[in-house]
Amino acid sequence: MEATFADIALKASRDGLTHEAFLYELARGEYEDRTQRRTERYLRASGLPREKTFATLQLARFPPPLQMAIERLRSGAFVDEAINVVAVGRPGAGKSHVAAALGHALIAQGHTVLWTATAALVQRLLAAKRDLCLPRELATLDRVSCLILDDIGYVQHDRDEMEVLCTLLAERYERRSVILTTNLVFSAWDRIFKDPMTTMAAIDRVVHHCVILDLMALESYRAHTAQQQARDALPRPPVDRPRHAEKGEPDRPPISQPGDRLPAPISEFCNDDLQESVAQSPTEDLPHA
């Protein structure tokens, strides 16, 4: 407020603002400044990829039902209701980009977000468990409104890793939102958790209150871009040119078509009826000299 007080006071004096209007402008400027600083602080702490936002997301690539689902999630209401989001798709389909874009939108709305690779977070929880401070670490994560776990399907967990991950999901169940990206459908999650009962318990907690974004039908964006660049790099076939143009001869006049008007020298000696009759006759039918 101190930095903007002089400018706002000068503006109020110049525009003849009342005391109430002056105080309103002063408070509004302070609110906007605090909001901007808070957003920057949340963004630094989130670990989100800065470039993966809705501004860079090619939403038109997705089918209309997916587009509608993503736009609804963009409002951030799912965080207030502790609803989870699972983006399932093949590598390169855009699931991580969608998750990161949602994270950016949530931060702009004032929510706290943490983006992390699943493997990195599991190791962090394991270290906390070895140091006998796992409850404190879980309490720290509980202060995050939305936890984004990227690539949960790439990690093959042993028993200890499986236990801390299940504990995390159980702690956030119906209290805080989790966004998961994975290349595995739910029927293949036994590769992650190994034990069938643990797998069933994890899936049950995740999908009970959940929005599932099915991106399995989408092709890899990276592969599509590479193919497009390869096609653009191919040499284009040469354009066929008439032989007389290759020899440097002047362009020949086009052959007249039915309905064309006769050239001016001929039209000067023909009345309109005769000119129309001749123009509608095929060129090859005209008598030769």
Structural features:
flat, 3 domains, disordered C terminus, 289 residues, single chain, Rossmann fold, alpha/beta
Concise structural overview:
Helices cover 53% and strands 9% of the residues. The chain is α/β, with parallel strands linked by helices.
Could you please describe the fold and organization of this structure?
With 289 residues, the chain is of the alpha/beta class. It folds into 3 domains: 2-44; 47-227, P-loop containing nucleotide triphosphate hydrolases (Rossmann fold, 3-Layer(aba) Sandwich); 254-283, no CATH class. Helices cover 53% and strands 9% of the residues. It has 14 helices and 5 strands. It has a 5-stranded parallel beta sheet. It is flat.
Distance, first to last CA: 97 Å
**Multimeric organization:** single chain
What is the helix/strand order?
HHHHEHEHHEHEHHEHHHH
For the biggest sheet, the summary is: 5 strands, parallel
**CA radius of gyration:** 34 Å
Q: Do you know the CATH topology of the largest domain? A: Rossmann fold
Break the fold down into its secondary structure elements and pairings.
Elements: H1 2-15, H2 19-46, H3 64-74, H4 77-80, E1 84-88, H5 95-108, E2 113-117, H6 118-130, H7 134-142, E3 146-150, H8 159-172, E4 177-182, H9 190-193, H10 196-207, E5 210-214, H11 221-233, H12 243-246, H13 264-267, H14 272-279
Parallel strand pairs: 1-4, 1-5, 2-3, 3-4
Helix pairs in contact: 1-2, 6-7, 6-8, 8-10
